[in-house]
Amino acid sequence: MGIVTVITSGKGGTGKSTVTAGLGAALVRRGARVLLVDCDAGMRGIDLMLGVSGELVFDIADIINGNCTPVSAIYPCKTMPELYILPAPQNVRDELSPSVMKQLTDVLKGYYDHILVDCPAGIGSGFETAAAPADRAVLVANAEPLSVRSCNKVKRKLQYCSVEDVSLIINRFNLRRFRRMDVYDDLDAVIDEAGARLLGIVPEDSAASAASQKGLPIEGRMKASFAFDRIAARLDGKNVPLEIE
Description:
The chain has about 240 residues and is α/β, with parallel strands linked by helices. Helix content is about 40%, strand content about 20%. The radius of gyration is 17 Å and the shape is globular. The mean pLDDT is about 90.
């Protein structure tokens, strides 16, 4: 039975969808079968990052409305076997309810080792839908006050949705810029303010950003790829030392 992880953030623009795609690819490299579920109704983007946008016919709302079977709305990533995507609806009005989302993922868990749910930013109705089936959550933040301060509010909302296992990824980290900004004494201060245990740090990586824009997986010798590999190992329960990655 697969594990459902919701990837979320309080503030938009943290790179949450890129983290979802990068972490999914890293879990596949560990031998897992992975489904990425895009819950950002009206603003979907994971399909672009995996290079399948031109093939989309059905989405998650079509399954619920009886327009297709689940398998017809799940698309494989051509460049990475065992990585799949279930796209979000094109229209916000087709957003799933939390109860329906949970029912669907309960069925899909039988076919995948990991289901990563890409949550819309903020804590509105889309957040509640994305969090409903989650066994655990990963907060994505940048090392800056507006991003970090929102994490505590999101964590409380996750706990309200009965998601207690919450960890933190600091994304697009640039040590030189962090020191120049001079807001936090160190990364421990960032982690303390976020209020969640640190799962990993993903460095700023222009090659990874370019790959995502071109519909290619984050892999190979990209700095972000190495970071995602370590984070994926920790998600699988391996004891991998934390470091500035």
